[in-house]
Amino acid sequence: MARELGVTKPALYRHFRSKDELLHAMEADYATRLLDFVVRPLRARTAASGDATTGGQGADAAYERHLEDVVRLYLSSVFAFFDEHPFHYLFYVRTILGRRRSTTGPVGDALREHDALLLQLVDRPGSAIPEECLLTVARYLATSAAFWTTEHYRRSIGRPPAPGQTFEPEAVQLSRDEQQHLIEHGVRHVLHGFLASAADVDREAVERIAWIQPAEVRERPRVLDAITRTVLEVGYGAATVERIADRAGLSKSGLYHYFRNRDHMLAETLIDGQRHFASLARTRFGQLGTHAERLYGLFVMISSYAHHEPSAVIVENWLRESNIEVQIPGDHVVELQRIYAFVSEMLVEGQLAGDPENGFAILTFINFLVMQELGNLDVRTARPDRLVDRIRGLFHLFADGAIPTLESNGADS
Asked: Taking the domain 198-382, which CATH number applies?
């Protein structure tokens, strides 16, 4: 950092006495930018909403227009936030997506206002939509905004997908038309979903086939086991490399061997796990009759696998917390694309909304979406029926969109 600034290290320490103090200063700056770019537009929209979503003639159409405006505003605000301050993406993942609601100080204040405003804006007065449904829709909107903005930037600089979801600050500048196209793409999918024929999926039948059993889950490798056990014992923030190395029975320098390069052992370990999961998925895909059933089956498989082996969720979240980016080699991407070819086929045949070249991006989004949602649920102790209910609701959002999800929950309640 001192070299980048063109100053001596002691000169930098005159401003910040430690790395922790510098980190706190960055967090305070993040809170200010989050307020400027995301919270204040939501606040202004709340003040301007008035009675636009209340009952009366044309209430359904008015509510849908209101919800569309809210989604467009949120996506536009997040896009502008990352466009101007890409280095704050990690804070966004740790707070907005990571749901770290114990955060205090300016960041905690900004987060609580963000959550309250977003819940108020997606709610429909008089419908008594359950708060859990509103929370799920709000998280889905935040996850969609983060993922599709990141995916666009990564693609624009020719990088393969990465499970760490690290934002790329060196992305090319987009024209106003390109920005608006990206935003409208997100608005359409958040509101109306990806799969119009989801109602044809027999959820219970798919769940019986797709649910992965404990005996099918392999023992986790030593490094992943060390990460998982350390995080469970001391939390993400305190899961340092030193503690993980001690748990793994390695020296710190020995553990750094795993994390030094993008083609390091951690990447190989994760890829090996993906291959094992893909082999389980391939067998089940052959027993499911339609592409839509396979798509829902994928949601069930990811969730049940994480239920029996939570390191999948823990390690991905730890990678984001530690800002470790693991690139997936291109040949492995091609290998996965062959196994999940039905997604590309659905895009070509028009069953799945989106552009044909988005096949692997949609697969990555599904994994990102499920992992984020499972991060809000203790998958180790969750009852299977509770987990299935959560995944059914998430698939409903993905397939049908926010409008049918909110309307159906309002009617049910």
From this structure: 1.10.357
